Here is the input.
Amino acid sequence: MSNNPIQTVSTSKDKYKVFLAIALAIAGVVGYYVLAGQLWYVRLAALVVGLVAAVLLAATSDAGREFFSFGKEAIRETKKVVWPTPKEAGQITAVVFGFVLVMAMFLWGTDKVLEFVLYDLVLGWKK
Here is the structure.
């Protein structure tokens, strides 16, 4: 017997909420462009009202609650990260830069050796 978590299927009410939230967001963007002749703050208000209404409506659905829960969890995990000090970041940057420089010189040298072997020795083309 296994302990598989049971996934619930979202209700049609939640689907309508998400659909309506998308429609509100689109309406806000369309309103911004339809009001092109108006003052900038009227256009901005139409956009902001549409987007805020969409976010608030989407947040009441199961998918919206899960999304915001995921966001809070991601922020909590980000706070647990041990970030390098400026000195460590500089040292890491210097190591990466040095590696890139050495690799570039290696690839240039390999290219020149292959060019010499193929063009001068194999094909007999002299530059």
